[in-house]
Write a structure and sequence with these properties.
Helix 11 runs parallel beside helix 12. The protein has two domains: 4-125, Rossmann fold, CATH 3.40.50; 137-461, TIM Barrel (Alpha-Beta Barrel). By secondary structure, the protein is an alpha/beta fold. It starts with a strand and ends in a 6-residue tail after the last helix. The protein has 17 helices and 18 strands.
Length: 467
C-alpha cells in the first residue's frame, strides 16, 4: 500500500520523476514506472490501496483519457485527490472542483513554495513516515547548508564595518551578515552601499540583521523599528531579519503572535524576504525560560514557512552541551512539520560550537570571531588577537593566496593580516562542515575538532547527538 500515487501524462514524465524523488524522502510513492504485469489490473489495485492521489495538471494531461480514468477510479474508491499544476492550464473536464497547488517553474528545489505547499497538504491526509531532511542549499542554491555568515559590526571588532566588508569582498566570502544599526543614515559609513553592491555583483549573499545586538550592547534604548526602516533604505541585500521582540511573552500563543506581527510589520520596509527571530523569555537568575521555545519555533515555522528562523545561541543554555540539548529539542519539534525548517543561530562563530550545534540540528550560523580573535587552526581554538604572532606561520601555508600575500604586504596592517588568516580558516572549516553533513560524517568532523577525550565526554552526555 502506497502513501501517494502520482497521475500524469507521459509528456510530463520528467516532472513526475522529480516529484517522485522529492516526495519519496517522506512518503512511500507509487507511479506507473513501477508497473510489472497487466497494466489495467495493476493500476486499479494500486489506486484502490493508496492513501492519496496527486495528479499533475498540464495541457496534455487534461486531454488524456488514462489520466481521467485514473481520477475516476480514485473518486470511486474515495481516495483524496490533491492536484498540482505544472503548466498553466485548466483541470480536465469534471475535475475543476479540486483545489490545485501551483508547481509552475519548479525544477526540483526542495525550498520551492509550491512543493512545500503540496507537502503540507499531503501531510493533512497522510502523516510523513520520516522526518524532513536538511536540503543541500536554500535561496535558489545560493546559501549552502550548513552555512556560516561572517558578520560585520561596529561593536568590539578589530575592523570597522566598511573595512570589514572590503576584506570580505577581496577574499570572496559568499555569505555575509551586516547590522542595520551600522547602516542607520546618520552613522552610515560613506561607500558602504557601493561595497555591498560589489559583494552581491560577485555572487555574495547579504543578510541584514535587526541591529538589536549593537543597540543592546550600547544600552541604546532609542533604537526602534522606524530607525530600522530608515537603515534599510538604499541598502543592497538579499534577506532581512525582523526587528525582533526582545522581551517575548511566556504565553505560547502570544509569543508566536509577537514574532509574526514583527515580520508582517517589517515586510513593509523591504522587498526582500523578512526572516523571524524567536527569543526565549529571560529569568531573574540571568538565564532563559526554554519551556515553550521549541513549540513557539514550530508554530512560527508552520504559519510563516520562512527561509530561515533565527535563535540566539546564548539563550539556549549556560553551557554548550545544554545548548545542544535545547537545539535538539527544537529540531525534534520541527521534525513534526511536512517541510524542513532551517534554523540560524545568532552569535555562533566558535568552531566547536558550530560542529556540535550542527549535529544537534542547527543549519546556519554567524559570528564576529573572524575579526575579533586569532585562530589557531591546528588546535581549532580561538586566541586573543594579539597572539597572532604565534600563528603567523600557519598563514604562510594557507590555501588562499590572498592570505599568504597579506603577510608580506606592507600596505596591510596587523588587523588585516589576522583577518585574512582567520578568513582562510573559516572558509576551509565551512567547506569541511558541508562535506561532513552531506556524507553523514558529522561525528568524525566533530572528533577532528574536539579531540578524542572531549568527544567521548560529548557522546557520554548526549548519546543521541550523532544519530
Amino acid at each position: 500500500m502506497s502513501d501517494v500515487y502520482i497521475v500524469y501524462s507521459r509528456e510530463d514524465v520528467r516532472q513526475a520523476e522529480r516529484l517522485v524523488q522529492t516526495l519519496s524522502t517522506r512518503w512511500d510513492v507509487w507511479w506507473d514506472d513501477k508497473i510489472v504485469g497487466d497494466f489495467s489490473t495493476v493500476i486499479e489495485r494500486e489506486i484502490q490501496n493508496t492513501k492519496c492521489i496527486v495528479p499533475l495538471w498540464s495541457p496534455t494531461a487534461k486531454d488524456k483519457s488514462n489520466v481521467k480514468d485514473e481520477l475516476r477510479l480514485a473518486e470511486q474508491y474515495n481516495i483524496p485527490i490533491i492536484p498540482a499544476r505544472i503548466i498553466p492550464t485548466n483541470a480536465p473536464y469534471g475535475f475543476n472542483g479540486y483545489s490545485a497547488v501551483d508547481l509552475l517553474g519548479w525544477t526540483g528545489e526542495g525550498d520551492h513554495p509550491g512543493i512545500q505547499h503540496l507537502m503540507r497538504k499531503i501531510s493533512t491526509v497522510v502523516p510523513p513516515r520520516t522526518a524532513p531532511t536538511r536540503p543541500s542549499a536554500i535561496a535558489g542554491d545560493r546559501v549552502p547548508l550548513p552555512s556560516l555568515f561572517l558578520s560585520v559590526s561596529s561593536h568590539e571588532t578589530q575592523l570597522v564595518p566598511l573595512e570589514a566588508l572590503k576584506a570580505l569582498r577581496l577574499f570572496g566570502t559568499s555569505t555575509i551578515l551586516v547590522s542595520a544599526y551600522d547602516l542607520f543614515p546618520p552613522r552610515r559609513p560613506r561607500g558602504i552601499q557601493q561595497e555591498l553592491k560589489r559583494i552581491r555583483a560577485q555572487g555574495g549573499f547579504v543578510l541584514v540583521d535587526s541591529g538589536n545586538y549593537e543597540a543592546t550592547r550600547r544600552d541604546d534604548d532609542g533604537w526602534k523599528p522606524e530607525d530600522f526602516e530608515l537603515a534599510l533604505q538604499g541598502i543592497p541585500h538579499d534577506w532581512v531579519y525582523c526587528f525582533d521582540e526582545m522581551t517575548p511573552s511566556r504565553d505560547r500563543k502570544r509569543a508566536v503572535g509577537q514574532v509574526i506581527a514583527a515580520v508582517e510589520r517589517d515586510r513593509k520596509f523591504t522587498k526582500a524576504p523578512v526572516l523571524p527571530i524567536v527569543h526565549a523569555p529571560a529569568t531573574p537568575s540571568k538565564g532563559y525560560d526554554l519551556t515553550i521555545l521549541p513549540a513557539v519555533v514550530r508554530d512560527v515555522a508552520d504559519q510563516l514557512q520562512p527561509p530561515m528562523i533565527a535563535l540566539a545561541e546564548r539563550e539556549l543554555g549556560r553551557g554548550l552541551i545544554q545548548r545542544a540539548r535545547t537545539m535538539r529539542r527544537v529540531r525534534n519539534e520541527l521534525d513534526r512539520l511536512s517541510f524542513y525548517q532551517p534554523i540560524h543561530l545568532l552569535g555562533t562563530g566558535n568552531p566547536w560550537s558550530i560542529a556540535i550545534l550542527t549535529a544537534a540540528g542547527a543549519d546556519s550560523f554567524d559570528g564576529l570571531e573572524w575579526c575579533r580573535v586569532a585562530v589557531d587552526r591546528q588546535q581549532h581554538r580561538l586566541n586573543h588577537y594579539q597572539h597572532f604572532d604565534f600563528f603567523a606561520y600557519q598563514a604562510q601555508m594557507a590555501a588562499s593566496p590572498i592570505t599568504v600575500s597579506a603577510l608580506s604586504d606592507d600596505n596591510i596592517d596587523y588587523a588585516g593580516k589576522v583577518a585574512f588568516h582567520n578568513l582562510d580558516y573559516y572558509q576551509e572549516l565551512t567547506h569541511d562542515l558541508q562535506a561532513a553533513a552531506s556524507t553523514n560524517r558529522l561525528e568524525a568532523f566533530a572528533v577532528g575538532l574536539l579531540g578524542q577525550s572531549n568527544s567521548k565526554q560529548l557522546r557520554d552526555q548526549m548519546p543521541d547527538l550523532f544519530k
